[in-house]
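Changelog note: in this version the structure field was regenerated for every chain. One regenerated record is shown below for reference.
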Amino acid sequence: MLPELENRTIVHFDLDTFFVSVERLNNSKLCGLPVIVGGMSDRGVVAGCSYEARTFGVHSAMPMRMARSLCPDAIIIRGDMEQYSRFSNMVTNIIAEESPVYEKASIDEHYIDISGMERFYGSLKWSHKLRERIIRESGLPISFGLSVNKTVSKIATGQAKPNGELQVVADHVNAFLDPLSISKIPMIGDKTFRLLRSMGIAYIETLRNMPVEMVERVLGKNGIIIWKKANGIDHSLVEPYSERKSISTETTFEQDTINIAMINDLLLKMVEKLAFQLRLKKKLTSCITVKVRYANFDTHTLQHRVPYTAFDHVLLPVVRDLFSRLYERRMLIRLIGIRFSHLVSGVQQINMFDDQPETINLYQAMDHIRNRFGTRAITHAATLGRIEDEEQPDKIVL
């Protein structure tokens, strides 16, 4: 084992069937039953499901029509992202109180760097105590994996589920990984999995023993990263989580204005740009702030918490509502600004329960065009003509 791997201790916590577990706190009659959380219509998508539903082949991101077909007796729940966000923040607050360095990787998982803890308390004992506190105070089942880096810890968590804990010490990393399916490696999606399986590669041991040059030829530059993960190598750090991290933009008008129609179109443009940046950086926001500065330099802000999202159509109505509540003085406006904060890492999945696959596909298509031809290559018609980019460039801070 590489020396630098032996010196690190990373624990990965993951809330088990998070959405379903929260629903079961509200309704104990759901315990032991197949439960699916997601869009209610046949065109909706599964956001989460219980282990009982998974035995029928149901999984996240599956079309609801297919899920109903596989598990006709399942209880379908639309879900409440606001409630899930509240429980997620509760768990994060517990971890923040106990942990030296932690990273909120998504709404239901955290990484904690507890390197050196074994000298004072014992890393496994410390992780166990923290897990007990989370279960006791939140009522939610949670699993953890404890090992030498983020990759091995995350895989260990998957093996510890449901509601369990597993430590993989440095000397046993390869022995732990080798018999597992290559699908357990983070970064290996369906397409990569099918490609590797077509080559006869089913287990991590086989991939680990392949020449790295061959893996790179097959999978490109990502192949090197995947090969390292198969060998239990991951030098990525636990990034300290901060609720202060934000992305923002503001515009100062050349002439103070009360043109509300123009300002509403500008708010659309600003939300569109920030939301694209969130998706590009694989971030989600749960707090929206709008700022208004009047001609006399009086500045006022108003904020609102929302379920984690990176979608324009979810963010824009909140932004416009905040602006309408702020603009009460009917004075000339000098500046407007928007900030999205309380960011977490994560890709917007089909867990906005009103969204349909077509909505997700539309965002992906628009983002692909922007990545290729520039951020203004595709935009809402309302921002054309009235708003010119040359007037006052926005600033984006992350």
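Spot check on this record: The radius of gyration is 23 Å. The chain has a mean pLDDT of 85.
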